[in-house]
Structure formats: structure tokens, C-alpha cells
Amino acid sequence: MFEYAPAPESRAIVDIKPSYGLFIDGEFVDGTGKAFKTINPATEEVLAEVAEASDADVDAAVKAARRAYTRVWSRMSGAERAKYLYRIARIIQERGRELAVLESIDNGKPIKESRDVDIPVVAAHFFYYAGWADKLEHSGYGSTPLGVAGQIIPWNFPLLMLAWKIAPALACGNTVVLKPAETTPLTALLFAEICQQADLPPGVVNIVTGAGETGRAIVSHPDVDKVAFTGSTDVGKAIARAVAGTDKKVTLELGGKAANIVFDDAPLDQAIEGIVNGIFFNQGHVCCAGSRLLVQESVADEVMERLKRRMATLRVGDPLDKNTDVGAINSAEQLAKIRELSDIGEAEGAERWSAPCELPSNGYWFAPTVFTGVSQAHRIAREEIFGPVLSVLTFRTPSEAIEKANNTPFGLSAGVWTDKGSRILSMANRLRAGVVWANTFNKFDPTSPFGGYKESGYGREGGRHGLEGYLKGEDS
Ligand code: NAI
Ligand code: MG
User: What tens digit of pLDDT does each residue of 100-123 get?
Assistant: First the structure.
């Protein structure tokens, strides 16, 4: 293909410390447990040692959150809380480049995405929910907070998932104990510094790092009033079981296997870009990724030809290079899972094609890949791969497209590409998915609710609906 000069973003702006403690009651403190390492998945370089919060540490964090809730945060007027949220939002904008570079280093995502998508949308969430803080009586969900929220987030959008969780919780008057994922703790710890910089009262936000055990300690802590989780369906089910029979309120945002449906009257150039964005954005580490392409039979050959041509131009490599389209796979574990499911796809008889790109020798990489000849029974059509791997199925009629799109245990998102507005509306009505995009894909906006049906979870995040999970409701 082409030779390009590298255009790396400088990492001089970030100051990564050799080790990090936990953020409890407004201070960084040593954990009482072990420590673990976080690495740069593009190079396998160890970035820092991070404390693994023990049960005792989680208990200290919950106690700090409870004190802050009772003494300060729930007593403060909504307008006062809003000032802190606005301040945090503005600091996120001011320190946007630092946050974006750190996110790309710890996560592996391309800088153009962390810079142009993740961080701006993070700031937008804090601005948006700051606006609700003094208007909760108009929310339709009452204005009484729940108390202490335990929040557990994944590694695919580390700071964005933090914003989705923390901004509405704080706006509603709750305090939080949040656990970032074990492979991507660094931007959450920088966010803790931002809370200090914003003079947020101690204990309103507590960040405890660690893996599954730390997550379990948060979920099962008796003084946590609300559990908010984004991650795998298996862990989501375990959390639902753990809180069953308690008073804890739960929202779960789990996996997906979205259909991206292309009709023969679609504007094909835009559709190709939408297919690429749908599955290769963020290396396909996206719960709402358009991982099943349903293309109308009459244009299937043309779409596949154009798609492969476009995929061959995707630039895979250094996440900090401003021209990179596809960065590193987040972890060795995730890479193993992507490889395993892709090998199964081939063994089941689907035809595999990968973009001809050179992959760096260190780090975790997977070339953008597409499978044709996929049938509904194939595991690559049913299971979330969570990587840059697209399965292509064909259909003849709108009804067949609906039947195939809905034939999944998930129901998070879907895409429809067609020239006809009436068809968009009728498809959207019949698709069992929380979000349906038309002639676009992967659009995120704080004013718009996001969430799933079926095994994709329950509850909504974003928009007015996102307040419901953090308020007691109209009657209480
Ligand atoms: P995971 O569900 O294990 O991890 C998500 C978060 O939950 C992390 O913070 C983790 O430390 C925590 N956690 C793990 N076990 C827990 C437990 N028993 N109790 C409480 N918290 C716990 O997901 P993982 O292993 O990182 O990825 C596995 C698969 O899950 C991926 O391949 C992908 O298919 C899916 N996934 C979906 C995401 C989404 O956005 N819906 C995000 C990340 C992964
Ligand atoms: Mg990392």
C-alpha cells in the first residue's frame, strides 16, 4: 500500500507515577492488599503498579462515601452540586490532551478516538448532568437520592464509562465507590486528581482499583444502596444473583451482537464507512459494535468488494500515531478470546478474510477481519467476539432481516441503512434493540438514553432516563 511518515502524539504531557494507591475520602492512600501491574498493550511496557483493594479497603471507601453522603452531599442544594460537576467538566476539557494520551497508552485505543470521541463525550456527560442537578423535580423520577452507589466498569471506554456512571450519580445527590477495570486503571486515578483539583468534598467520589474480587466486595457490601455494572453478561448475571433479595437497586449494561442491516437502496459509500465504524471503531471492543452485517443479497457482492477495498486502507498500529485507525487489543486474554472464536468460525465453515496489514511485533494485535458465508447457527454469529471481527449474513426481504437481526440472546443496538424513511421507522419498531441507528452508527450523546433488552441488561444510561437508576422515584 502506501508508506506514511509517522505522526506520533507526544506522551510528554502525561506523568505516570511508578505506583498508585487508592483514592478514599479525598486522599490517595496505600492499599492493605497486594498490587498489580498495568501495561501498555501496544508495547507490553509496564506502566505502573496499582493497589488491589482488599475487603477492608472497600469497606473504608464505602464508609467514606456514606459519611460524605450523610453529612455533605445529600444536604447540599442541587445548584451547589451542579457547580462541582461543571467545574469537573471544565477541568476535563482543560486537561483533555493529557487524559486522551493516558487513555490511549493504558488502553491501546487510537489517539484520534480518545481525543475526538472519548474525552469530549466524557466532558459532555458532566456538563449535561450538571444541568439536571437543580432540576430533578422535573425528572419524573423524584429528587431523592439512593445513597452510596457501587460502580464497576470495563476497560473498553475507561473514562467514558466512569463518566456515564459518576455524572448522573453525583447530580442526583449520591456518593460513589467506583472500580475501574484491572487493565485500565490510570485515567480513573487521574480523574481522582481532578476531583481534588475541583475541591470536591472528600468521600463523594472514591476510586478503588482491583479485579473481580474487589468488584465482588463492592457488590456484596451491605452499606451499598445501588450497584451499577457494565461488562460481560456472565459477571452481570452473577451480580444480579448476588443482589437478589436485598434492597439494592441494580443497573446492568452487558454484551451485544448488533445487526447492521444494509438494504440495496442504501447509499453504499456511506454504508461502507458505517460498517467499518460499526465494527472497527475501538478495535471492536464495543458492546454495541455492529458485529453482524446483514446485507441484502442483491448488493452483497458489491458491498463485500467495496468493504475489503476499504479495510485494506485501515492503518493498524501505534495508538499514539494520529493517523492510526485501529490500535492494540486491550489484553493478552482478550486477544486469545478473539483468536479462539475466529478459529472456531473457520472450523465451522465460514470464509475468513483479513486486511493485509503488517502488525507490530510487540504488543497485542489482530488484523481487521471479515467472515463471509456465516450462518445463524455459527458461534461467530451468536457470541460476542469483542474484537475487530465482522460476520456477514445475507437476507432477501425486510422480514427476513428482522428475523435474523432479532435471533440473538442480546438486544443492545442495531443499524439500518436505506434510502427510505418509512422503512427506517418500520424496522426500528420491529428490532428488539435498545438503540437503533439509521444511516449512521456508534453515535453517543449524553442526552440520549442507552441500554439493552434481554441479556444485554436492564436500566438506561444517558438522558433523562439515566437519572432513574439514581433516584428513589416519584412516590418516596
Ligand atoms: P468482566 O465482566 O470480567 O469485567 C468487567 C468489570 O467487572 C471489570 O472491572 C472486572 O474487574 C469486574 N468484575 C469481574 N468479575 C467480577 C465479579 N465477580 N464481581 C464484580 N465485578 C467483577 O469482563 P472481561 O473479562 O474484561 O471481558 C470478557 C468479555 O466481556 C469480553 O470479551 C466482552 O465480550 C465482554 N465485555 C463487555 C463489555 C461491555 O461494554 N458490555 C465490556 C467489557 C467486556
Ligand atoms: Mg493497561
Answer: 999 999 999 999 999 999 999 999
Q: Do 36 and 49 form a contact (C-beta atoms < 8 A)?
A: yes
Return the higher-pLDDT residue of 3 and 120: 120
Counting ligands in written order, which one lies closest to the CA of residue 328?
Answer: 2
Residue 8 included in any domain? no
Taking the CA of 156 as reference, the closest ligand is 1
Helix axes 421-430, 398-406, angle to 10 degrees: 30
Q: How confident is the model at residue 3 (pLDDT cuts 50, 70, 90)?
A: confident
Residue nearest ligand 1's atom 9 by CA:
181
CATH number of the domain encompassing residue 320: 3.40.309.10
Q: Are residues 348 and 328 in the same domain?
A: yes
Total domains in the chain come to 2
* Co-location of 110 and 87 in the same domain: yes
| Strand order through the sheet with 226-230 | 27-29, 22-24, 205-207, 175-179, 148-152, 226-230, 249-253, 457-458
Q: Are residues 234 and 317 in the same domain?
A: no
Exactly one of 103, 253, 384, 455 is catalytic; which is it? 253
Q: Evaluate whether 299 touches 317 at the Cβ level (below 8 Å).
A: no
Strand 175-179 versus strand 369-372 pairing type? unpaired
Q: Are residues 166 and 24 in the same domain?
A: yes
Tell me the CA–centroid distance for residue 40 and ligand 2, in Å. 5
Q: Using an 8 Å Cβ cutoff, are 55 and 89 in contact?
A: no
Residue 301 and residue 178 in one domain: no
Is there a domain that residue 7 lies in? no
232 C-alpha vs ligand 1 centroid, how far in Å?
4
Torsion angles phi and psi, residue 228, rounded to 5: -120, 125
* Residue 48: domain span: 19-254+456-470
Q: What is the predicted pLDDT for the residue at 2?
A: 63
Q: Does 451 fall in a domain?
A: no
pTM exceeding the 0.90 threshold for the entire prediction: yes
- Centre of ligand 2 to C-alpha 355, Å, is 26
**Is 94 tagged catalytic?**
no
The letter for the amino acid at 276 is V
Residue pLDDT, tens place only, 409-464: 999 999 999 999 999 999 999 999 999 999 999 999 999 999 999 999 989 999 99
Minimum-distance ligand 1 atom for the alpha carbon of 235: 2
Same domain, 269 and 416: yes
CB of residue 254 inside a 6 A radius of ligand 1: yes
Q: For cell 496489514, what's the residue?
A: 357
Percentage of the chain beyond pLDDT 70 is: 99
Q: What's the average model confidence in pLDDT over 269-282?
A: 98
